[in-house]
Specification:
88% of the residues lie in helices and 0% in strands. It is mainly α and 110 residues long. It starts with a helix and ends with a helix. The mean pLDDT is 89.
Length: 110
């Protein structure tokens, strides 16, 4: 039983990651990698500061990963994935706008 399950899981993973390997899968993996990097960047910045910090790179990785994942979702025709990524990209762009606006206002306030 365990051998059959192990074989089935192995066959599934080979199918998903190797048999179906194409440019779209590579795009999806790269997009997910960019999206995941934002968490690493945010975690490192917060650890260094000793409190929660959201650096500019977090928003840049969010936008890059979100846009690529949206393209991937559009290709896959996944309505839930499309809606989630489209809304997320809007939020990331809006937050980047606030960051840039505040950075531009800071020198004039000083």
């Amino acid at each position: 039983m365990l051998v059959d399950l192990s074989h089935a899981v192995g066959a599934y993973l080979v199918d998903v990651f190797f048999t179906r390997l194409d440019g779209w899968l590579i795009l999806g993996i790269v997009a997910q990698g960019l999206f995941t990097m934002r968490f690493l960047v945010q975690w490192i910045a917060s650890e260094r500061a000793g409190h929660s910090v959201i650096p500019l790179a977090f928003w840049l990785f969010s936008i890059g990963g979100g846009l690529l994942l949206l393209v991937y979702a559009l290709y896959r025709r996944d309505a839930v994935f499309i809606a989630g990524q489209a809304f997320g990209v809007f939020v990331y762009l809006r937050n980047l706008y606030f960051v840039m606006r505040d950075r531009n206002a800071a020198p004039s306030a000083a």
